[in-house]
Amino acid sequence: MPTSNRKRAASRERPDAEPRATFAQLLPHLFADVPRMIGIIVVSIVAAAFSLAQPAIVSVLITRVQSGEALSWLLWSLVAVVVVGAVLQGYQHFLLQLTGESIVLNTRRLLIAKLLRLPVAEFDARRTGDLVSRVGSDTTLLRAVLTQGLIEAVGGTLTFVGAVVAMIIIDPVLFAVTMSVVVFAGVAVALLGPRIRRASAAAQERVGDLTSAVERAVTAVRTVRATGSTEREEALVDAEAVGAYRRGVDVARVSALVVPVSGFALQAALIAVLGVGGMRVAAGLLDIAGLVAFVMFLFMLVMPLALFFGAVTAVNTALGALGRIQEIIDLPAEDAHDREEAPLVRLRGPANVEDEPDAPALAFDDVSFRYPNHVVRARVAHERAVARLDRAQRASGRGRRGEVDALYELDAARTDDPSPLVLDGVEFEVPRGSRIALVGPSGAGKSTSLALIERFYDVTSGAIRLGGVDVRSIERDELRRQIGYVQQDAPVLAGTLRDNLQLGRNDADDDECAAVLREVNLGGVLDRTREGLDAQIGEGGVRLSGGERQRLAIARTLLAAPPILLLDESTSSLDGANERAMRDAIDRVSDGRSLVVIAHRLSTVVDSDEIVVLDRGRVIGRGRHEALVETTPLYRDLAKHQLLVPGG
Ligand SMILES: Nc1ncnc2c1ncn2[C@@H]1O[C@H](COP(=O)(O)OP(=O)(O)OP(=O)(O)O)[C@@H](O)[C@H]1O
């Protein structure tokens, strides 16, 4: 494949490649608050009038001095005009900053609202740090450039127009001379615009990469320390930091060209005005008062012009940042992926009670599934790039920029291969009130099955039915209200015990929270500090043991009291006491519920109503423990390894 095609294919596959926004997309952000914008325009007009009055008064003053007339009130009015003008400018500046802050707030709200509603697959394919940096750094950049650049330049436009009119009135010839210099500078700055935009988008992307690298290292800090890979991670983050620095310098280099161009424009215009103006005064075509006023107007013209040139940089930088923001805002939210042909069904009550009384609570009907191609490719690319970095580090002793650049470079030749089937014709049922266990080796597709029930993804073919109804025709919120899902290993959020429990039910009071904790054998956690429910459990629940975390998550789902519970058992090894506590908790929650448990320890599930054995995405055995030991060799091996049958 030719390099250009390969690059194009790669950039299509990389979700965050070269996002761009147009000027039209910037306008709605600017005019989100119309009344305030009108206020700014009014203040700007008045401020401009006060500025423009100054040269006019000075000109009259000079004429009066020349003719020996009295000045008294004119002098005071000049002082008043200068003071009021300055106050108005301060107020205008404040209003502009306020507008900038509102723009950032609105943009952040849009972005956060969309981020929290993106399909799960988007999170698989993107890097968390990069998403986070769009909310933080890109929106901040948008504000900085909007307030410091564009809006001030818009505010200065009135002064600019007034100055132009006044200069034309004073001396059209001198004005023509001035403009020829200014137009030259304007063309030069306009030509630089696209380069600034490209450089700035690249710089912001690098900041996203940097945040991702930091996030990766910090979230896995225990693994990083335990494996002695601090230096390796440091090199990786450092390479990203250097990348961000280099792209930042690129922006500085391009935008630095704007400064001399506008400086040159001012100097050249001043020299031209003084030279040509002086000659015109000597020739009697212009008086001294007129020349002084003209020069003052020239400064008034140049100031907004400099702001305007700065705004070109600002707008182009803003468009780079906005492109990255807009890319997320434009992504379809999770619900937008719903099947249109299937009419939505509103469940009349908990699915396993009322809908189709004879249908099982859950049923997998010939379900096959492959992860979306872009998700799989992002994973493969990431793994491959990290492996390459490892090799490079081993070879050179330190991380190299090019290797990190390769992090998301994809092997374009592979882009058309469909991703492999992760589930293949899976069939099983969960009768109401029963407990079903999914077992099988790592990678068999157990967690994926639960993710499909929750509709984090939709099946590729076949159907999953809840109370006889295809889950794809149930509104996601409603579906998820029927299901409690306890994920593997880290199912709690930073915050207090109460915060975590109330995720299950917002209005649960302290007594209910305490009762449910005791129900899952977490009374000890509640009593061990004086803070009780207000005890902080740390980022990801680090202040709890693996088993406690999982039981807290079970307690949370109990508060929500869903008719169906999906439990992905913790893979971390539990001590005897914890394991017993977990089994008791599961026994209690299974009362009157339909339960699907992914078991890594067969001891948790030997007494299930049915055990489904998965291997490489296929069901290779179904039945009770005793029968499976006889009929399914893989299950027999698992049981042997876990000492549940003799002969292991
Ligand atoms: N988000 C994802 N994107 C792409 N592929 C994935 C994703 N999650 C899992 N896979 C792949 O799907 C297959 C099944 O994974 P799954 O997590 O369902 O297995 P599992 O049986 O739950 O394993 P374990 O017992 O180790 O948790 C694996 O090959 C895995 O690499």
TrEMBL record:
Q: Domain ABC transporter: where? A: 407-641
Q: Name one Pfam family in it.
A: ABC_membrane
Q: Where are the transmembrane segments?
A: 37-58, 70-88, 150-169, 175-193, 254-276, 288-315
- Asked if the record carries the keyword Magnesium, the reply is no
* Gene Ontology molecular function: ABC-type oligopeptide transporter activity; ATP binding; ATP hydrolysis activity
Q: What is its main location?
A: membrane
Where does the UniProt annotation locate this protein? Cell inner membrane
Superkingdom, according to UniProt?
Answer: Bacteria
Q: Does the keyword Transmembrane helix apply?
A: yes
Topology in the lipid bilayer is annotated as: Multi-pass membrane protein
Q: Which UniProt keywords apply?
A: ATP-binding, Cell inner membrane, Cell membrane, Membrane, Nucleotide-binding, Transmembrane, Transmembrane helix, Transport
Q: Which residues form the ABC transmembrane type-1 domain?
A: 38-317
A single GO cellular-component term from the record reads:
plasma membrane
Give the similarity note.
Belongs to the ABC transporter superfamily. Siderophore-Fe(3+) uptake transporter (SIUT) (TC 3.A.1.21) family.
Name recorded for this polypeptide: ABC transporter ATP-binding protein
Source organism per UniProt = Pseudoclavibacter chungangensis
